[in-house]
Write a structure and sequence with these properties.
Radius of gyration: 24 Å
Strand order of the largest sheet: 3-12-9-8-4-5-7-13
Distance between the termini: 57 Å
Shape: elongated
Mean pLDDT: 90
Low-confidence stretches: none
Strand content: 15-25%
Oligomer: single chain
């Protein structure tokens, strides 16, 4: 409530939203006029217009204007069910690489999921079916100097160095492969490519991919116990199967809620990149 005691545009939008969800206002049905709504809620027409724009941004109304009353919009296409990263990431990256300026930001434990996912857009570039002019990739990975939350040895204090060195070798090798595959496009296709890494001072509990500032893909790292055979025996560790983590998609175009998630995720990434992270050398 404002200081005057009158309803805010958001409160009016919430009331109308509940009427739409409850079926009081049905798909295709016109809302009351702005004058009628203003009288019902005891506010000015400008307040009503702001509330209607909020609902339009959420995809619930169509034809919002100063003319005839808007209609309750048809439901948008159903969102795809979350899929494992190994399945969902490649087509999302392929769509992102259709833009003239490709911008990929990622927070992850290693680049394990990114390398195979980039295979399809790179193939399409080599086939001449995708032609980006510039590619900017920024990746945040855990620092080699921290005690990781995972992967870690099952027995505290036992084989910790071996587990850490195994992860570090994977982090460096995968990052170098990713960097090489992308930067090779400079010579083969004259694409302006920039790939940068920075080191996180903590273990990320989830992975995040930001695509062209328009979509955020988010997946939790599920920690599990697993064994890794080595030349000297078997490493028992708590680790993650990142490629199997379910990837949830949030797109700006879907509505205000998803747009807010994408924007806040981008701000969070930028803040980490510019403040508490440090230079990372893949060696």
């Amino acid at each position: 409530m404002k200081g005057s005691g009158r309803l805010t545009p958001q409160q009016i939008a919430d009331t109308l939203r509940e009427r739409i969800r409850a079926g009081v206002l049905r798909v295709g049905e016109r809302l009351p006029t702005q004058a009628e709504l203003a009288e019902e809620f005891g506010v000015e027409r400008g307040t009503v217009r702001q509330a209607l724009r909020v609902l339009q941004g959420d995809g619930l109304l169509s034809n919002v204007s100063k003319g005839s009353p808007p209609r309750v919009a048809e439901p948008g296409p159903a969102r795809e069910e979350p899929q494992p990263t190994m399945v969902a990431l490649a087509p999302r990256l392929t769509d992102a690489f259709a833009a003239p300026h490709v911008r990929i930001d990622a927070v992850c434990l290693t680049a394990q999921s990114l390398i195979p996912a980039l295979g399809e857009p790179l193939r399409l570039i080599h086939d001449g079916r995708l032609r980006p002019e510039r590619i900017d990739v920024r990746i945040l990975l855990p620092s080699r100097d921290i005690n990781l939350a995972f992967p870690v040895s099952v027995d505290a204090g036992s084989d910790e160095d071996a587990v850490h060195q195994r992860w570090l070798a994977m982090r460096n090798a995968q990052g170098q492969v990713l960097q090489y595959n992308l930067q090779a496009l400079r010579g083969t296709h004259d694409i302006d490519v920039h790939v940068a890494f920075r080191a996180l001072p903590f273990t990320p509990p989830a992975k995040l991919y930001l695509l062209n500032g328009a979509e955020a893909l988010y997946a939790y790292y599920m920690v599990t116990r697993r064994a890794e055979p080595t030349e000297s025996g078997t490493l028992e560790m708590y680790d993650t199967l990142g490629s199997e983590s379910l990837l949830f998609s949030f797109e700006k175009r879907t509505g205000r809620r998803d747009a807010a998630f994408v924007e806040q995720s981008q701000k969070w990434f930028d803040a980490l990149w510019e403040t508490i992270t440090t230079d990372l050398t893949l060696s």
